[in-house]
Amino acid sequence: MSRLHSPSRSAFSSVTARLASTLPGLVLCCLVALAAIGLEWVEWRWTGRAWLEALVLAILLGAIVRTFWTPGHRFVAGIHFCAKYLLEAAIVLIGAMLSFDAIAASGPTLLVTIVAMVLLSIATGYLIARLLGLPRRLATLIACGNAICGNSAIAAVAPAIGARGEEVAAAISFTAILGIAVVLSLPLVGGWLGMTPQGYGVFAGMTVYAVPQVLAAASPFSPLSVQVGTLVKLVRVLMLGPVVFCFSLIGGHSAEPAAAAGESPRHGSRLATIVHFVPWFILGFLAVAIARNSGAIPDALATGAVKISTWLTVIAMAALGLEVDIRALADAGPRASAAAMLSLLMLCILSALAIACLGLG
């Protein structure tokens, strides 16, 4: 009997050991995340607005902690767990916020324009960053952050291209600063250009990073601007899945395959090979989005999924910050900042031209 129970006991002991090794780092990341959420609450309490979201504060606080104290070996497993697996789980849950009906109702011209703008913005942003001498992965993160949805896009693309914590922290730090500047300055730009409420909504949705920031930037114009801006922004978010899928395929094919090392293929079918190259969280993201739009996920559950995704992302950002020595960002700072700024400026110019030339406003 003891022999029959030994495999199960061994498996249980292995799981227990993994949980024990993960717990210290997990607790540390949660504490940093709670501090970030608390600071965001203080911002709302004192100023009526979150100038820095908890997601940004978490990675900044984590980086500050790491600068003055390097977590010991017993924290490493938990920090890695939060930075990788919690982040991937958060990306899956983001699919619950997408509405295919609202996207289809907006018309083909606007949809095609948004898709084209995202792809063009990624290309121009990457080119600008590379011309400024930034590494390929950092250039990709900055380009995708500007083109799609800022921090969330950076966090989603990072595991697909194998970006390091320093590169993620750099991209998020600089886009966070620009995100605040855009929210404050965009209404002035829209008024100066004489945009209509609908046109300004498209403009805000095309250029602002996060959905809450779209609301803040569009509300000074009109409720219509808020509605249009939110819809455009959600279409940009929807582009996150295909973009990460493409980067996953590029990354997968650029990696050394088993056959190149003289080994036999590990996957016998084409489907298995594709799944091997596509991260599980992208498949999960698409599955959740389809389930949500088919009615399998009710409104209440979808709202809860989005909230849980936000919490998991904040914890993951705290972990990424704890993996980063902020002093290592000094060399890339000016160039990364310039790349993010010029990429965003180019996106604003292209968006304004598209609105005027295609009659979207």
Short description:
The protein has 361 residues and is mainly alpha-helical. Helices cover 80% and strands 0% of the residues. The N and C termini lie far apart (76 Å).
Write the layout of secondary structure elements.
Blueprint: H1 2-47, H2 54-68, H3 73-94, H4 100-105, H5 108-131, H6 136-149, H7 151-161, H8 165-192, H9 197-207, H10 211-218, H11 223-238, H12 240-254, H13 270-277, H14 280-293, H15 299-322, H16 333-358
Helix pairs in contact: 1-2, 1-3, 1-15, 2-8, 2-15, 3-7, 3-14, 3-15, 5-6, 5-16, 6-7, 6-8, 6-16, 7-8, 7-12, 8-9, 8-10, 8-16, 9-10, 9-11, 9-16, 10-11
Structure description:
The structure is a single chain. The chain has 361 residues and is mainly α. It has one domain. Helices cover 80% and strands 0% of the residues. The chain contains 16 helices and no strands. The chain has helices at residues 2-47, 54-68, 73-94, 100-105, 108-131, 136-149, 151-161, 165-192, 197-207, 211-218, 223-238, 240-254, 270-277, 280-293, 299-322, 333-358. Helix 3 runs antiparallel to helix 15 (299-322). The radius of gyration is 21 Å and the shape is globular. It starts with a helix and ends with a helix. 45% of the residues are buried.
